[in-house]
Amino acid sequence: MMSTQDIIDTLAGIEPGSALDAIRARRLQARENAQKSYLSLFEPIDAGDVSLLERAAVAAFVTGLHGESPVATFYREKLAASTGGAALLGAIDAEIARGKTSGPYGSYPAGPLSVENTAGLIYRVSAASKPALGARLTAALEHAHLLVFRPRDAASSDMKALLDAGWSTTGIVTVSQLVAFLSFQVRVVSGLRTLAAVNAHKEAAS
């Protein structure tokens, strides 16, 4: 059954009729589009080249990299509730701990921006986690980490690694869309929860 409640409102703890609800209503199209994106990525009518389990696993990993939050908890629980997901939780948790870092970092092509080159973790899934994750998820997690922390380093060789692991070009696009949406969702929910806390503090002080 597809979700009808707005996922960002739920994760941010926004109640109908609240001040934050009114703020979000001012940008109704953006609100609706974000919800449509969530539904198309995580509750699709046809999962196609990326299974629901793979979507949930990538989501749990990406949101976990951003730190503890209601968003990370939501997707971890979504993975646990997915068919076969409970068996992946240990590996995903281990890879989140292994992949946590700060960014973005990486190298620009030779030129004026090269002065901004920053070294950082080049993440690879551990040998211990690979049997549980399998080749497809192993490649997907490494690709997701690249997009989150080293987008400027993305190259054709990274696409080849995904193709070699069994991903189709359509599947690669979907995984990349998942990562972009999740990074957006984490930022929006964090901002809304911060704003709610500020408003609550003001109301308490008045």
General description of the model:
The protein has nine helices and no strands. It has 206 residues and is mainly alpha-helical. It is globular and about 55 Å long.
In a few lines, what is going on in this structure?
Helices cover 64% and strands 0% of the residues.
Q: How would you describe this structure in keywords?
A:
single chain; 206 residues; mainly alpha
Number of distinct beta strands? 0
Helix count equals 9
Q: What's the pLDDT, averaged over the residues? A: 88
Low-confidence stretches: none
Overall spatial form: globular
Annotate the secondary structure layout.
Blueprint: H1 7-12, H2 19-25, H3 28-42, H4 52-65, H5 70-81, H6 89-99, H7 130-149, H8 156-164, H9 169-205
Helix pairs in contact: 3-9, 4-5, 4-6, 4-7, 4-9, 7-8, 7-9
